[in-house]
Structure formats: C-alpha cells, structure tokens
Amino acid sequence: MATMADVARSAGVSVATVSHVLNGTRPVLPHTRQAVLDAMDELGYTPNTLARSLVTSRTRSIGLAVSAISNPYFTEILQGVEAAALEHGYSLLIADPHDDPVHERKVVQLLHERRVDGMIVAPSADPGELLAYLRRHKVPAVLLDRVVDSPPDGSQRFDQVCADSAEPVARLVAHLAGLGHRRIALIAGLPGLSTTSERLTGYRDGLAAAGLAHDDHLVVHGDSESAGAERATAALLSLAAPPTALVTANNAMTIGALRALRDRGLSVPDDIALCCFDDFAWADLFSPRLTAIAQPSRDIGAEAVRVLLDRLASPERPARTVRLPCAFVHRTSCGCAEQPRGSGKPDGAAEPLTSASPEQPLTSVKGTVS
After folding, report:
1. How far is CA 106 from the centre of its chain?
2. Beta-carbon-side half-sphere exposure of residue 268 (alpha carbons within 13 Å)
3. What is the pTM of this model?
4. Cα(142)–Cα(140) distance, rounded to whole angstroms?
C-alpha cells in the first residue's frame, strides 16, 4: 500500500507539501498540487481519513438532516448538497428527522457525535430544541429551506438558504385572477413552518393586487402532505360556494388535491383550475399538464454547502440568509390553451420571477418558526 512518503517521492515534493495538499492547511501552487494529485492517482494512494482528522480536528464530513424519504422535494436538494460536498472533498452523513421535533433533536445529536464539521438542517415547525442544541454546542450549521426569526434575546443566529416563497404564490393568484377566477382557494402547508407563513402572505398579496377580498373559508391547511390536502380539498368542495380555482402550496399536497378531485369526478381545468407550488419531474406528463412554481432545488442544496464552508472558514462572520429565485412554469392546468408551435413562447417554459437574489441580513427575513 502506497504511503505519503511514496507520493512525495513520485511528485518530487516534500511530505509536508503532500500533507498541505491533502488537508488544505497551506496554499500550494497549482502545478505542484496537480503533480501531487497525479502521483496519488498513479500509486493508488488512499488518505487515512481517521489519522488526518486527528491531526486537523476536521473530519471533512457534513451532516445533513432533511426529511428526504417522506418529501420528494428534499430529494433534489439532497442531490445538490451531495454534488457540492463531493466537489469540495467532503463526505455526507444523512439523517431523516421526519419533520418531528423530538426525532429532529435526536438525529442532530447523533450527527454531532460523529464529529461532522458542520450541519445542514431543514428545521421542523417547532425547532426550539434543535436550535438550543446547535447554539449550546456551537455547531456550525446552515438552516435549509425553512427560515427562523432572529431570537429576541440576541443570541446566536444561523446562516440560512431558501427559495423565495411569497412572490411566486402571488404570481399564481394573479394569473388565475387574470383568467377570470374570483374564488381562488389555497391549500396551505403545515402551520408553524416559515414556508407556510410566507406562501399565505403571497396568497393574500395576490388577492389584494387583483382587487379580490380575502375569504377565510378559502384557506385550508393540508399540513404539507398528501392525505391532509385530500381532506382540505374535500372541505373546500363542500362549501356552499366552492372555489373555481385551487393553489396548492407544495408537491405532496398537489397529489392529494388531484386525488380528491378525481374521486369526485371533477375535471381540471374544465371544472376547477389548479396551480401548484413545486414543479414535478413528471408534471409535464399529467393531463392536463401542471402550471407550477419551480424551485431551484439542487441550487439550494449546493448553495447551502457553499455557505457552510464559508462559515467553517470564517466562524466569526455575520450570519446571512440567501434566497434563490423561483420560476413560473406555464402549462395548461390553469385553464390556458396549449401554446402553439412557433409562437416564440413554448408551453411549459420556465419564466424567472425575480432577478438573482442578493444575500440578505438575517434580520430581514420574516418567519413564524419559533
């Protein structure tokens, strides 16, 4: 088995230089670095990660706690995190907190006990114990997708990476209102999540911009999951004056809403129009094809890694929140006709909603998670 000394001889450098290349402890000239990497590849040298971590106090590993098993949206984020971590030479340890505050606290502790250098966490609707643990143990962490308000006592804040939520929902409502709908309902997510609060804000803003009154009966929580959205849709359809259009606030709830509509023999968009937050990989295969807001899921994951690595490099830097723009994907479930070929605006094309999002100070973010 090749040793570090073998690599140094083959590359014509010192053992210390090989160590600097492996551990990133000192800048190395690009051609020297490449010579070391080539020698490692030629000799089949495998670094001793355990020994290296004992020297550097770093394991070059990142802990990721997201509900990827139960929520397909997080699966794409996971792919972005994994690709960016590997690109920077980090391994990934993954745990699923199942959006349960108690389980969330346990899995984060388990990741911490495995000495990950930092964590990326999508917090639950009640992340108090999670945040207290991260603060108490001074764990470098980035909160993903769901943001938290700054604590009133001025204690440690966290870096956060998410997509814009309010403006895209306002765009969906405005689009439906522009098609003549006056009773537009929202199937909202789990109360307590910042994404739920922000999408509710966007819904209200969209109604106001269209000159439509807000009706509490047209907002029902589907709790961010399919079965809840199925119940919520049934409740909306049972109203004396049911909605003529639906906005679903995440991908799982879109499935539940479609199931409820099918069970009642209702056709989209002939009987009721539908727009959804979160585009699907298969949304283009539905009939009708789903008009949706597409989040930059993989980019969110990759950006979270970059923000975490910045935190590891500069522990004292101010906390920041990065919001990435979404896109409006115009298809036919809203009631619009298929775009003809050659129209210059192909059906299903994504339209950016905002310009590239600047980094925002954490205090500018509005959320309801405590």
Report:
1. 21
2. 28
3. 0.77
4. 7
